[in-house]
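Troubleshooting: if your tokenizer reports a length mismatch, compare against these two reference records.
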Amino acid sequence: MRLSSRRQLAPVLFALVIVSAFVPRLPAADDDLKQLRDQIRSLEQKLLVLERKQEIKDDDSATAAKTAPKISITDKGFTLASADSANSIKLRGLVQFDNRLFFGDNGIVNNSFLLRRARLITEGTFAKNFSFQLVPELGGGSATAASAFTILDANLGVAVNKALQFKFGKFKSPVGLELLQSDSWTFFDERSLVTNLVPNRDIGAQASGDLFNGTVNYTAGIFNGIADAATSTNADFDNEKDVVGRIFATPFKNDAGSFLQGLSFGVSASLGREKGASGRTAGYKTDGQQTFFSYAATTIADGQNWRLSPQFDYRNGSFGAIGEYVVSTVNVRPSATGRKAELQNKAWQLAAGYVLTGEDSSFAGVVPKTNFDFANGTWGAFEVVARYANLKIDNAAFPLYASAASNADEATSYGVGLNWYLSKAVAFKFDYYQTNFGFAPGAPALSTNAVLRQDEQSLITRFQVSF
């Protein structure tokens, strides 16, 4: 801007110089000559003032640009940030609309449309090192659950550095690998049988961080403690607490070009004590979200519980795989005064996916090279997925702590699916599951639970918007 203003004033100054050069040759009186020179000096002063005003205006514009807030609207959400990005607030959303169809189920009322998840997520940072997250749930959690407003996540974070970060509040307990993955980016619509045996969202405090140039991640925390597959209701039902730890390594992360660069593996564990009916699971569910096992209503938890889960994730170009094994141990009584027993329930799963259109597989989802646009002949990205999973109930649970007549003691699930990513934010998922049931000795030939009278065959279709 300054250079431009000088260029505009140059012809005027040049004309004045020419005039002043020829003035002495004009047959004018001395007073006329003096008056003309005064006018020239006055014009020069005015030009200098105008140039200085332009400089000040340019400086003000540059300062305003440096201090103005930044606004960003992308497929990752809406973000309002300070000029130095030290303070920000982000609004994100997740909506999942499902259709569930069951085959050969003898007329059980379970086919349905379902608003599986509906969330408006608020995240923010202050002074770079402080953060918060608030995630309400507006959708129904299962095919039979009515829509209700609940708070899934509400937590505060403090980042000292990459090696030490703290989180306080309500968030996912760091035990299950598949559970820690975003609800938007799992291979399948529903998580595997393994996730039945790990705690979901709990209230507590944890420390975590990356070590050794990002090749090792650790997490350690203390939580109120919840049962398998449970989420905290914001109330602690006993005075005991759970200690949770996880270590996860990506040893070849920095070896560019290595076949093992995308390999991560580790182990997680939890240890605590639970008491009362709230201390044991409300039930284990199939891929189709139907309950195949639950303890008797009078059974209570009373004593130590612990979990152990070795786990891995592997990504190489378009191929991805995830696997984990979980042992969940709980001490239970058939009533407040009944005999106590320690039960061990076990599960494992292996899932894999391949992106047919060549994009990279990622724990954080697939990003299409081109978005779906029918007019331009682009179709987004396509991924095929497959999964095998098994969950086995401790045989000692029957018949004292759970009924063999209305429960399965084992579930084995097979799943195949197709994921169509129309963009980073929009996806269709088509999953077919088959779950076969096993029964404890002494179980009747025909279960009293209608869900268990045949193997479960289900097709779940999902339309998802996530940003």
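Reference record two:
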Amino acid sequence: MGQPAIEIKSEIGPLKRVLLHRPGGELENLMPEYLERLLFDDIPYLKIAQEEHDAFCQLLREHGAEVVYLTDLVAESLTDQAVKEQFVGEYIAEAGVRGRKRTAMIADHFLSMSTHNMVSAMMAGLRKAQVRGYGRKNLTDYLDDYYPFVLDPIPNLYFTRDPFAAIGHGVTIHRMHTVTRQRETLFAKYIFAHHPQYRDTPVYYDRTAEGSMEGGDILVLSPQVVAIGISQRTQPWAIEQLAKRLLSPEVGFSKVLAFDIPKNRAFMHLDTVFTMVDVDKFTMHPGISSHLRLFVLELEEDHLTITEEEDSLENILKEHLKLDTVTLIKCGGGSVIDAAREQWNDGSNTFCLAPGRVVAYSRNYVTNRVMEEAGIEVLTIPSSELSRGRGGPRCMTMPLVRGPL
């Protein structure tokens, strides 16, 4: 038998296949006055961001991973003309466009392109100046005349970790916390419905669910245990619904650990404050180093049971992962100043290529040194522009296949 389409039983198994998105025109449609709306703090310089991203991809390939790109997978999912037209219509509707004539005008604009170029253009957003014949046709147009876009760009796409997650042999397609990121999950919907390699993948959570969930909060700690952050962007109800699927006999996980983390931008997702770098080693932000509130979700017959635990992070991990020792590697070492600075640049957000081998941003040199002192091999990548999006190497990757430990 060939390699499965999806196989993720851990955070640290040898990386075999990973999904990325090379930053594109969406970054060149960022404007200072609309950064907050699009969840950005700054405007990366696209040329350098692409060079940094290419260096990252090359590093992954050099260590044995197959890199696949989001744009390619979406384009390969739209070979049927009817599916392609349905995708365009759904995308335009979710972008908030109203009116039959206006919708048809935008659809014609996209459908006149090759499929690959069309997908890239949809990701980049659409300026009013790009659409022939676009003008003020109704009261809304007059009121929004100052706004230069017909369709907003989707600049967070290079953080492929969040719109969906690979768990076991299946995926979760998420309802994003913010409207500006919800269109990202539409690409995943069509990949897992129509791509010849991925269309038979089980879907454990759907983007139409009521509760928001994002992939940065999901960590597959072992073949038995999944950790999920109760965060600013992942709601408790969503975790319960996903836990019922993951703990079912057909999926086969034995417990879900729900970590209650602070609900603010600095602690946006669980993986911004906590990642696994070896069998018994983890990076963490010092802000969660004290006693941690955690809930253990298990399935008894058809009933979900919830047990609250309050203990140190070390003891929690040792108990549920059946480890004799646990090493927690603090972002920034023991310095409050270094931890705050490097947390801002995702010092805790490492990406594991194999047990004890991780990718990190070179700028987080204090945390990188501490990891090396703990016996971790740290491979660094440049990040002067990529880091402006407030996401690290784990945020930028969605592993599709990892080997066994």
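Descriptive notes for reference record two:
- DSSP finds twelve helices and 19 strands in the chain.
- The mean pLDDT is 91.
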